[in-house]
Design goal:
4-stranded antiparallel sheet, 12 helices, 17% strand, binds D-mannose
């Protein structure tokens, strides 16, 4: 597996110099951040990002994410225009040598938590999701904004979009995803790009919005409906694993050969729809990271993997979930497991 690390570009307090010092971690997961969602990413900007990464003796191996325009998710009449743009971005990424592209299909809001710095018993803090708090939250009130949310819309427009989603069922949203895939996957095939859809985080409906990348059944459905290797998934342990009902080994099995990227992190369940993020260790969280990596290894996964969110430790402050220290510990922990698995199988 290719140990990789997310980097948010020149504004990221975590620098490429820092990342280069994490043992056996050479892949960089990044994106072009100054293009409005839906617009084509110019080749020059992608090339520049790649050169910056390579100048630090690292490799830009995954793009996370190319955002999907809201009109595509909603199935609006204008979606074809945005889909054409998406294809053009994939072509430009391919020209720059990018092989893996992560994206998501979450309506309006990307990953969601109720608290960004909740204390843990060891004195560190981490991201937390409490069902009751989220139920009483109006995401447009400004009480809570999350780093992954696209807040480029005016609040009024967002309200309209949220209202429009009230008439979109999960079945319809799935059909809109399939429509999108039917259009873009042939381009991904031509260009040699592996598409890796990220699960909804958390993997259930929030704020009354439909969500579909949530369960094994839905993953199987979307993989079968557009049956191409280039139509694959990002297996995110912490997102699928936030729901204790999800059978993670079953998802790996169902998506065998179609897992193109892995996000590894642990969560501690605090209710059937509530959790807090922990260190990567199997001693701290509810997920058996060792068993999951073993399962991925057995399924033949050898692609890019990155430690996902970390806690804030040793007084570090910064982008919630994306500090340096705990993610670096995560990379080292994961590499230890992967090296052991490789040795056992003589790889
Ligand atoms: C959160 C991330 C997500 C992810 C997107 C992929 O930390 O895992 O924001 O990048 O959902 O499109």
């Amino acid at each position: 597996m290719e140990m990789s690390f997310r980097w948010y570009g020149e504004d990221d307090p975590v620098t490429l110099e820092h990342i280069r010092q994490i043992p056996d971690t050479r892949g960089i997961v990044s994106a072009v951040y100054d293009i409005p969602p839906g617009e084509v990413w110019p080749l020059e900007k992608i090339e520049k990002l790649k050169q910056t990464v390579e100048a630090h003796d690292l490799e830009l191996n995954v793009i996370e994410s190319v955002p999907v325009h809201e009109d595509i998710k909603m199935g609006a009449p204008s979606r074809d225009k945005w889909i054409e743009n998406y294809k053009e971005t994939l072509r430009n990424l391919s020209r720059a040598g990018i092989r893996t592209v992560c994206y998501n299909f979450m309506p309006v809001f990307d990953w969601t938590r109720s608290e960004l710095g909740a204390s843990l018993p060891d004195g560190s803090n981490s991201l937390k999701y409490d069902e009751e708090t989220v139920e009483h939250l109006d995401p447009l009130s400004g009480e809570l904004t999350l780093p992954g949310w696209d807040l480029s819309y005016q609040t009024e427009d967002l309200r309209k979009i949220m209202d429009a989603y009230q008439s979109i069922s999960e079945e319809q949203l799935m059909e809109n995803l399939i429509y999108f895939l039917e259009q873009v996957v042939p381009t991904a095939e031509e260009e040699g790009v592996l598409l890796a859809i990220h699960p909804d985080d958390p993997p259930w409906s929030i704020f009354g919005l439909p969500r579909v990348v949530t369960t094994k059944e839905n993953v199987e459905h979307m993989l079968h409906r557009v049956d191409s290797t280039n139509n694959g998934i990002t297996f995110c342990t912490g997102s699928y694993g936030a729901n204790p009902d999800n059978d993670l080994n079953g998802i790996i099995e169902a998506a065998k050969g179609r897992i193109h990227f892995v996000h590894a992190r642990n969560v501690k369940w605090t209710g059937s729809r509530s959790f807090q993020e922990t260190s990567h260790s199997i001693k701290d969280g509810s997920l058996d990271m060792t068993a999951l990596l073993q399962k991925l290894h057995e399924a033949g996964f050898s692609g890019p993997i990155r430690p996902d969110h970390g806690r804030m430790i040793w007084g570090e402050t910064g982008r919630p979930g994306y500090g340096l220290y705990d993610r670096a510990l995560g990379a080292a922990y994961l590499n230890g497991i992967i090296d052991t698995l490789d040795e056992q199988t003589g790889e």
